[in-house]
Amino acid sequence: MAFTAVYLFVLAIGLVSSTFASPWIQYPSDGLATMTHYDLPKDYIAACACTGDSTHYPTAALSQMAFGSSTAYGPACGRCFNLTLLNTFLSVPPFYPPTPKSIVVKVTDLCPLSTSGWCNATQEGPNAAGNYLNFDLAFPSDAIPDDFFPSNASYYGYTDFGVWNISYQSVNCTQWSGWNDASALGSVTNLGPESACCPSDPSGSSNDTCPSYSDHNGIAYKNRCITSNNSIVMVTPVVIGAFFDVHYVAVIPTVVLCFV
Ligand SMILES: *[C@@H]1O[C@H](CO)[C@@H](O)[C@H](O)[C@H]1NC(C)=O
Ligand SMILES: *[C@@H]1O[C@H](CO)[C@@H](O)[C@H](O)[C@H]1NC(C)=O
Ligand SMILES: *[C@@H]1O[C@H](CO)[C@@H](O)[C@H](O)[C@H]1NC(C)=O
Ligand SMILES: *[C@@H]1O[C@H](CO)[C@@H](O)[C@H](O)[C@H]1NC(C)=O
Ligand SMILES: *[C@@H]1O[C@H](CO)[C@@H](O)[C@H](O)[C@H]1NC(C)=O
Ligand SMILES: *[C@@H]1O[C@H](CO)[C@@H](O)[C@H](O)[C@H]1NC(C)=O
Ligand SMILES: *[C@@H]1O[C@H](CO)[C@@H](O)[C@H](O)[C@H]1NC(C)=O
Questions:
Q1: How close is the Cα of 130 to the center of ligand 3, in Å?
Q2: Tell me, what's the pLDDT at 116?
Q3: Tens of pLDDT along 116-140?
Q4: 206 CA to middle of ligand 6, Å?
Q5: Helix or strand or coil: residue 83?
Q6: Which of 208, 210, 221, 248 is the most exposed place for a label (fewest CB within 10 A)?
Q7: Protein residue with least CA distance to atom 11, ligand 3
């Protein structure tokens, strides 16, 4: 009973929120961001379902609200960016690389929206470094030298700063090192176009850029719920039908309110 009430409430909010402007973060082609790194196994098929061979070259996940979907693919899939390390800011003092370091990545994955963490920016506010975008670099990777991230171990006592301020620049994917390897381009063929989308060189035009999977399938764009004890939890959106534009059911019985 309570569950039904919650569901109807969530559905009502979903219908209301659909009348507002797009929830996704619109960002300029060049700007500032943060960069973290994450483990992506070689040949792994990530959210966009780009071919496994894409992992043989530098790839990154982009924070959810800029990626443009809460699941599977979004408009960022396949886009290429030149990322330049600026400085660290969690270390004391901040570290500035002695020589400039840049890398061109292809976005193949989604960095899920979290309540804190570096991928938590929404239109309402940035992450803890004041940035709306976080690039989560697949690293370590055979495609990137192990010493890509500069460090000063003798001074700081560690080599991994974890998070960096960076600048990003949208670049033509002809600049990506995987461009000349046909097997690293495009999406896997065994999933079907409904769940895979990885353009070789998206221009932003609708004919060569992925739509938002979650918008297209009526899945919540945020997967945050407030529980009855007032804590915020992330839940996995579940599509339960195709009649209303937002279909979202919380699988946690204590959930009382979801932002959809
Ligand atoms: C990436 O940015 C750096 C720093 O601005 C620049 O030196 C480099 O040429 C750029 N690389 C590409 C491929 O655009
Ligand atoms: C993201 O998390 C930081 C704390 O890590 C917080 O200060 C910031 O307000 C959060 N941003 C959003 C949009 O929730
Ligand atoms: C880097 O991060 C710090 C701390 O969040 C911030 O104050 C600063 O403006 C950022 N940008 C640069 C270019 O240092
Ligand atoms: C490490 O940092 C210290 C203090 O800033 C500096 O004197 C030293 O030259 C640095 N070493 C390297 C290898 O960057
Ligand atoms: C990238 O460059 C190629 C070759 O110059 C061009 O055909 C293509 O339209 C460019 N892509 C974008 C997204 O601008
Ligand atoms: C996509 O549409 C643009 C015009 O909107 C056109 O210039 C371009 O050639 C089209 N690209 C493809 C791959 O059909
Ligand atoms: C609130 O409830 C969730 C599960 O519903 C639980 O994981 C969490 O620890 C609880 N938090 C507090 C502060 O009791």
A1: 7
A2: 81
A3: 899 999 998 999 999 999 999 999 9
A4: 8
A5: strand
A6: 208
A7: 165
CA distance 166 to 17: 33
Helix (H/G/I), strand (E/B), else coil: 226: strand
* Count of CB atoms situated within 10 Å of the CB of 142: 10
- Under CATH, what is the fold of the domain 30-216? Barwin-like endoglucanases (2.40.40)
Domain ranges of the chain: 3-19+220-259, 30-216
Please report the pLDDT score of residue 52 as a whole number: 97
Q: Which two tokens stand for residue 68?
A: 């443009």
Tell me whether strands 232-234 and 164-171 are parallel, antiparallel or unpaired. Answer: unpaired
Query: Which residue, by CA, sits nearest to atom 2 of ligand 2?
Result: 116
Residues 193-221 have pLDDT tens digits of 788 999 999 999 999 999 999 888 877 77
Write down the pLDDT at residue 168: 98
Q: Which residues line ligand 1 (CB under 6 A)?
A: 82, 84, 100, 102, 104, 169, 171, 175
Tokens linked to 27 = 């960002």
pLDDT confidence of residue 194: 81
Q: In ligand 2, which atom is closest to the CA atom of 122?
A: 13
pLDDT at 13: 43
Q: Which of 64, 115, 116 to mutate to test the pocket of ligand 2 (most atoms within 8 A of CB)?
A: 116
Please give the distance, rounded to the nearest whole angstrom, from the Cα atom of residue 254 to the centre of ligand 7. 9
